[in-house]
Amino acid sequence: MTSVALLHRITDYANRADPYPLYAELRKTPVVQDEAGPYVVSTYWEIKELLHDPRISSDARNLSPDAPRGPAQEEDPNLPPTFLRLDPPEHDRLRGLANRPFGPPHTPRRVHDMRSELGEIVSGLIDGFRDREGGDGIDLVDTFAYPFPVTVICRLLGVPREDEAHFHQWADTIAASLDPVSAEDREARAETTRQARSDLALYLAGLIEERRKSPRDDMLSAMAAGHGPDGQLSPVEMISTAALLLIAGHETTVNLITNGMLTLLRNPDVLKRLRDDPDLAVPLVEELLRYEPPVQLLPQRTTLTDIEIGGTVIPKGASLWLVLASGNRDPQRFPDPDRFIPNRPDNQHLGLGSGIHSCFGAPLARLEAQLALTELVRRLDNPRLLEDPPVYRQNAVLRGPRHLNIAFDGLK
């Protein structure tokens, strides 16, 4: 493959249902410069090396003035960048403060202690399928894969679940901003995204002020009141961090669960194995993160100096795209990479990233997917796809079905 319309082919909706043959073609040249300007890296070892290289920046301010700006690289003048878009030491300070109420070492059992609560949410949602037994089926996204992680992140943060209708639209708009668009569409989308960010920021600012006055056992209260060796989040940093956690806390997990059920229904032998052995869920979710990762590519990196990678010199300030999903199918790292092997050994995939920007919510996402898929295959009698391939979301970065219509004969 040459540079001819490379990114257009990757992001073209016509390839959304199955981008993997395109990735295989892309891997023939590990580093390619697209005609639009970005350097695209597609092979496992090169991506892994760059994710751990301190000469690679996540801060769009380090792009050279003439470098193409990718999705999610437009600055919001009213809010500081989230830690996803910063480098050390500021990244480390913000991520550390955000992590205090979420995980080790300060709250090591936060996710573990949610297991029972998560199980109750899953059971309740599946119980709601009962009136559709043997009927026209259900859309698993709208009835389960979306409401489950949204309910979880709302409870974790302290966001009222009844406000979902408001933040759903804002979250969809902000998540869509990750998706590459043509130059003529960029300005119109940027304005829509700015408005969604502003509306979400005002909403979260109100919630944070409420928690400051009347703290509860949730992350918003902990962030509003928290003090540590690195100080505390400023008011605008709290808003920016809360918005990131709210959106990232459900957008990717929706895809993980939906891609997981789609993969199981396409592989009935594996579905039966999981039904017979629920412990298989742990390695199965790891293989799912390799085989159908919810985040397909990282389009917001740049170089702090000239770097040689895969025989190509990438100049300082260049736009850099890392195609995680392609690296996960690299036969130089994973034998038989296009086959779903639920207990694949040595499965050091890139599905949750790697390095300092590895997924903040990885423990929760893993647990949610394990519980969701285990209960779905246990309780649904003869589940089957009504449409394959399903209708996919427009987004090429956060790739997953927008609808997953399935039928089943009954509930156990």
TrEMBL record:
It holds the Pfam family p450. Its EC number is 1.14.-.-. Keywords: Heme, Iron, Metal-binding, Monooxygenase, Oxidoreductase. Residues 57-111 are annotated as: Disordered. GO terms for molecular function: heme binding; iron ion binding; monooxygenase activity; oxidoreductase activity, acting on paired donors, with incorporation or reduction of molecular oxygen. It comes from the Bacteria. Belongs to the cytochrome P450 family. This is Cytochrome P450 107B1.
